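Example 3.2
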Amino acid sequence: MAKELKLDKAKILSQLRDLQSVSGEWVLEYDPDVDQLFFGVKRVPKGSFLVQLSDEINLFLDKNSKLSGMFIEYFKDNYLEHNKELIPVLQSLEDGGSVPSEIQEIERVALEKDLFFEALASLVDRDEIVTAVA
């Protein structure tokens, strides 16, 4: 039977504010079959779960509110319609890394900033963050 787990909103917000240093070793992957962009650790730790922040953005967290990644659903078909400045991120991922690394880093920083603001806006309005765990 699943039980409720209250997550530490302040800790999650702190990690999001410091996303550039938290995400130093994270990978960026796009799956065109399901139209999802993944940004996180290479292997999400066992016991992590998803918390949906908005229609598209989800965070991978553990029971201690440690952030290990995020993914965006409907990245190409919906998210980019509202965030056109991130189209180069998708283009470089679809090109298989043929874009010079300094351009990829600029795109990564743009994506981090965008995800930070989207996630922050979704979290700030919540009184608490509760999820169900097994």
